[in-house]
Amino acid sequence: MEKQPEALLTIGEVARFLKIPVSAIRFWEKKFVKLIPIKKSNGIRYYNTEMIELLSDIKKLLYDKKFSIKGANLYLSKDKNKKQSLIKELKDLKSEIKDFF
Fold it and tell me: What is the rounded distance in angstroms from the CA atom of residue 70 to the CA atom of residue 14?
């Protein structure tokens, strides 16, 4: 039986999906503050879609683009700031459009 796309995945399932070692994911958890899995009382880590996308981004930055961990952290934090700025700009624009009509 296959899991639903939105189902939580264990660290092993994520490692197989992303083709990286489990140890890399555990290491990244210590280095990337945004990477926080859901941990059950038995110690098993679970990852939602957002965390899996973040892991995929980290893998691309470190493995493909050859970023350092510090550089990848900086890049990811700047990306978040850009998104927040764009969201604010779009909300302001939406408000202006509503006022116009």
Answer: 23
d(CA 18, CA 12): 10
69 burial (CB, 10 Å; 0-12 / 13-18 / 19+) is middle
| DSSP SS3 for 10 | strand
Query: What count of other Cβ atoms lies within 10 Å of the Cβ of residue 11?
Result: 18
Report the distance separating Cα 50 and Cα 56, nearest Å: 10
Per-residue pLDDT reduced to its tens digit, 73-90: 988 887 666 666 766 777
Distance in angstroms (rounded) separating the CA atoms of residues 10 and 45: 6
